[in-house]
Amino acid sequence: MKKTLIAHSPDADDIFMYYAIKFGWVDMNNTKFDNIAEDIQTLNEKALNGEYEIVAISFALYPHIRKDYALLRTAVSFGDGYGPKIIKKRGATLKSNFKVALSGKHTTNALLFRIAYPDAKITYMNFLEIEQAVLDGKVDAGVLIHESILTYDSKLEVECEMWDIWQELAGKDLPLPLGGMAISRSVPLNKSIEYEQTLTKAVKVARDHKHKLSQMLLERDLVRIDASTLDKYLELYANDDSITLNETQFKAINKLFEIGYKHGFYDSLIKVEDFMIPTEYKELRYS
After folding, report:
1. What is the pTM (predicted TM-score) of this model?
2. Which fold has domain 2-79+176-285?
3. Pairing mode, strands 121-124 and 31-37
4. Per-residue pLDDT reduced to its tens digit, 56-84
5. Which ranges in the chain are annotated with CATH 3.40.190.10?
6. Given 106, 146, 209, 211, which residue is catalytic?
7. Domain 85-170 is found in CATH 3.40.190.10
8. If DSSP states are collapsed to H, E and C, what string results for 36-92?
């Protein structure tokens, strides 16, 4: 039996979308799944080095790894009227060259932030450390991601919503592409199709049994938030639109790549549809 490792972030939406497999609700023939949880920039860096077969990534990273990884259509997280937040101490005024903490160079929020605030002095740190760094005065501001956007300290306030920056740059009412899953091109195509089908089923089963799965995650201390915050958070980032990419989400990812290319972050302009797993392969193979 092949052992397959899935690398994802430790935030509640990734855990929720994977744990239907971990709890044995979904399986795949001749395959044993295991998982590892690491912060998103660590995952991005390891994807750049080709270390994982199946890995959660920031959508902004993908053009850099397109030759080595295909994008999966499932376990995706978008913001729609919400997203990462730039926070500061309550009442503080930021100068143009303010010092800011971001969760990683290759995250979507970092790409958008660097375009919107070209004079800011950026430092990168684990997303779990950003809020405290602002409170301690180590940085003037920070970009909060994951559950922190719902739970940050009352001594802090929002300077700007990343959603507003996205809307200004995208010029359309498109959801903000944050994170998805990628699979190594070293994996045989027919096996990649099976992995995608299994992961898609896992996200759907998780959604179909949201209350029960959420309770199990809470009872096992697998998430860092309480029940009411978890419920709200999952509706933001692990909702029904996370099961499989839709047409509007494809347009949003392409717009992100277009913006990144226009501002010199990518060496070429790509369309996401050209880098998905060709699911028709399996039908053709057995026809």
Report:
1. 0.94
2. D-Maltodextrin-Binding Protein; domain 2 (3.40.190)
3. unpaired
4. 999 999 999 999 999 999 999 999 999 99
5. 2-79+176-285, 85-170
6. 146
7. yes
8. EECCHHHHHHHHHCCCCCEEEEEHHHHHHHCCCEEECCCCCEEECCCCCEEEEECCC
SS3 26: coil
Radius of gyration of the CA atoms of the chain, in A: 19
Tokens of 181: 């899953």
Which amino acid type is present at position 85?
K
pLDDT digit string, tens, across residues 18-30? 999 999 999 999 9
282 pLDDT more than 60: no
Which region holds residue 81: left if phi is over 0, alpha if psi is between -120 and 50, else beta?
left
Amino acid found at 251: K
Residue 64 annotated as catalytic: no
CA neighbor of 238 nearest in space, from 276, 210, 217? 210
